[in-house]
Structure formats: structure tokens, C-alpha cells
Amino acid sequence: METKDRYAVDIVPVEERHMSYWDMFATWVGANANNGTWFVGGIIAACGFWGGIHALIIASSISYIFLSLVGYMGYKTGVSTMAVSRASFGIRGSIVPSIVNVTQFVGWTAVNTFIAATSMSYILHSLLGWPVYGQPGGAKGLIFGILVMSILHLISISAGQRSIQIIERIGIILVIIFVLWESIVVFRDVSFSQIANWKVPSHQKMPFGSAIDTLAAFNLAWVTAGADFTRFTNKKGTAITAPFLGADLGVFWFAFIGLVATISIAITSDVYDANNSDPSTIANRLGLGSIAMVVIVLTSMTANAVNLQAAGSAVNNIFPKISLKKSLWIVTILATLVTFIPVFVGSFLDTFTAFLDYVGMVLGPIVSIMCVDFYLVRRRNYQPTELSKKGGRYWYRGGVHWLAFCLWVVGVLVYLLLQRVPWIQNHTGATFITMILVGIAYYLVMKIKCNILLSHQN
């Protein structure tokens, strides 16, 4: 049965799981080999080359360990990530992480769509002479691009899981060609030594901890989509290793290209501006032409195929009577509307940075609670058939596990407080420390709760 016919809490039988290692690997490479990753790479250029590389390796590797952990949950239970969250947050309580998932994946879809639409404005400039976005009258091309991208997304999701796999397979080939092409152009004009030794202007330098938080927010966003895809594989190794390796390869590769391309432009122009980090601007300044813009458009589709799938599953978890296909239509239309926000705000960079702050703040505690509950508290022993049973094992009190919910709120507050600590901001970032503290607190509280229940039974 196709993914489009599945509901979030439907258990996918082993005999109906046909996602191969290559498809899983390509899905996660394609998820990160996109415009948003490129843009993030340009943002962390504010740490300098080596600072950006260190932050990228540390934050991405840690984040995608959690992707593997959630991937195994999907393989083990056969349900989506948001359905899995019912076990730790309660059947009704899972609405909270589901709303978070809807907002963040709609947001990521909008980010990629906006960048792709910017590329379309360059294409329309070449073909029809329309002004490029950022010039007087340039909004026309951008708006046209947003609408075209949204139509392409609707066509893609309507065709189901098979179309997503095809998009990923084609997309990864185009990505390989494009990245090699851009790498040749970058290093033709600027040497690696110049890039590695480039100094960030002191007033624009990003603290290392802030870079960790930026990358953690970017990478953790994929974690809550993990089980949505691993539920369709019948091999444990595929569920655990393919997402980790694919996502890491995609993020290291494309963020690196965004990093070096942004620095190379700063060197040749003698001006560093994070607003110039978006792929369309970089490709234009490197003189890559309309073909590069077309590839940027296509690679945004590979990422948004995953984004929309995850957002649709979350809507389906909130409103179980709405089919996954209809949920996908809803989130695609919503993402189209959200894409217009930077047009009115006036700065894509400011909008994107604020969005990353939100993602890092709310996602870390959710992921921590889910992983601790499954691996340490429940010892990998969930009962998938109970995930939709009112009054069952995961109903808790009124359908909400209030302990998990309260600790999530505490985690958000802890994150906000830690971000104000200079040492945290300069060295570690707040995200992973918050996740550790919330995880320990959840484990201890659940142990105390279990001991109290046992004492009452005796």
C-alpha cells in the first residue's frame, strides 16, 4: 500500500515495507542536499572557515545520532514519528509535538520554496527580461516562482511515495553534478589557502556556541521526520544507518559548499554579507547561469518532498479522520502562504534566523523526551496497537502525559535562559545542554513515578 493511503497511526506490516537501503540513503542525502543547507553554510561562514567546519561536524553528528534513534523507533513500531510521540506525550498530548512539527516543516518548505523562487526570478530575467528579485519590480518574478513551485509540490505529493523516491533519485544525480561544477568555479577563482585563512570582520563574527545552536536547530528538524520513512523498511540496519549516513553526507557536502562559496565571494568583493549566502545570489555572482538556477529549483523539490511528508503526517496525527493525502494538500497550501512572509518582512535572513531560534527552542526537549522514554524508560518496548486506543496504555490522564508536557515547557525555558549565558553562547550552545538536562530530568521523574506506583501495588 502506498504512503499516500496510510494514516499516521497505521502500523505498516513488514511484508508491505519495500524501501531499500539506497532509497532511504538517497532520501536523506536529498533532504539535506538543498538550498536551505547551502544557506546555513553561508550563515556559519561568520565563524570563519575552521570555526564553521568544527561546528558543522559536531552539531550535525550529534543531531543525526538522534535521527538514527528515531529511525529505529519507526522500524520497530511501523508508525510515524508523531504517532510514536503518543507513547511519551499521550494520545492527545502528542498534538503539541505534532503542531510543532507542522509549523517547522511548513517553515522549511517555505524556506526552500523562497530560495527556489528567487532562482526562478533570475531565470525569468534571462528569458523575459523581468527584474530580478531585490530590484524594483522584482517581486513579480518571485511571486510567479512561488506559485510555480507550489504547483510542482502539489503534483509531486499527489503521485504518492513512489514519486518521492523518483524525485530523490533524479535529484541526487543533479546535486552531484551541480556541486562538482560549483566547486570547480569557486576554487578556480580563490585558493583553498585564502578561504581557510580568511578573517571574519570582528563586528560580524558569530560566537561558536551560536553556530552550534543554528546547526542543531537545522539538523534536529529532520529528526522528527525519521520514523515517517523508516516505517517503510523491513531491515533494522537500513533504519539506523541509512538516515545517519545520508543526512550527514548531505549536510556536510552542501553546507561546506555554501560556506566556501560565501567566503570566496567575501574575498573577491572584499565585503562579507550574510544576506548574500542564499544559493541564487551565490550562483549569480559566480556566473553559473540559468542552468544552475534550474538545478536549485529541482533540488528544493527533493528536500520539500520530505518536508511535506513529515508535515502531512503530523496533521494526520492531530486530525486522524483526515487522510494523509488530504493532509499533504493542506500543508502544501499553508506552506505557500508562509512563503510570502519574507516578501512583507523585507529580509529573508532575519526571517530565517528567527525561524531557526524557534525550531531549536521547541524541538530539542521533544526529541530528548521521546528518546529517553523509548530507550531508557520503556526499554524499546512500545505496544503500537495501543497508540490509538482511548483509555489504553498511552492514554495517561485525559489523553495527556502531563509530566512530559511540563518538562517540555521547562526545557523551553531552560533553553532561553542558557542562551543568555555568555560562556554557553561562546562555546557550547544551549540546544544539546538543554536536551541532556531535560532527558535526565525525565528519566529521574519517571523512575520516581514507577517506584511510587510499585509501592502502592505492594
Walk me through this protein's architecture.
- By secondary structure, the protein is mostly helical.
- The protein has a single domain, classed as Hydantoin permease (Orthogonal Bundle), CATH 1.10.4160.10.
- It is 74% helix and 0% strand.
- The chain has 19 helices and no strands.
- It has helices spanning 21-32, 35-43, 49-77, 81-89, 95-128, 139-158, 161-189, 192-196, 208-223, 226-230, 236-269, 279-285, 289-318, 324-339, 341-345, 348-377, 402-418, 422-428, 431-457.
- The chain starts with 20 loop residues before the first helix and ends with a helix.
- Mean pLDDT is 84; it is low at 1-5.
Layout: helices, strands, pairs:
Layout: H1 21-32, H2 35-43, H3 49-77, H4 81-89, H5 95-128, H6 139-158, H7 161-189, H8 192-196, H9 208-223, H10 226-230, H11 236-269, H12 279-285, H13 289-318, H14 324-339, H15 341-345, H16 348-377, H17 402-418, H18 422-428, H19 431-457
GO cellular component, one term: plasma membrane
Membrane topology: Multi-pass membrane protein
Keywords: Membrane, Transmembrane, Transmembrane helix, Transport
